[in-house]
Amino acid sequence: MRILSEKIQTLQALYLRLMRLLLSAEEMIAIKAPYLTERATDDQLRQVLRKQTEEGEARAARLRDMLNRAGSESAAPIKCKVIYALFDEAEELVEDAAHDAVRDAVLIAETQRIKHYEIAVYGALRQFARVLGCGEDERLLNETIHEESGTDKQLSTIAERVNPAAIAA
Fold this sequence. Notes:
- Helices cover about 80% and strands about 0% of the residues.
- It is mostly helical.
């Protein structure tokens, strides 16, 4: 239960709040991605997951810059409960996987769940930036969506190879 609630009065306030939530998500991804990387057995999957750590840190820095440029009173992250929950579930599924191929399939599926959440929020922020006249933010958010979508496509390609091996496991 929240004792104090900051009401969101404007689209600008919503824009800033979502950016701070996404900042928390990116910071969590940078922290948790190495754990997922360690558990992968597929070399290509490990490479994609390693890249997520680096990109998460870069996207967090990008979001901090956008918050500062927007004149946000605070550029501090607000805990993203969704990402925390997704990582909790991912860790549980990884631990429950009985075979390497199944574990790799779990890692792909859970990373894609996280990516799809990020893509959705970045997409909403991009639309807000467009409406608010924040052209530079819109450009950066669009760039981020393309990066995230590219990773999602890479994961789908790896899944085409890994998932059949998980059937045999």
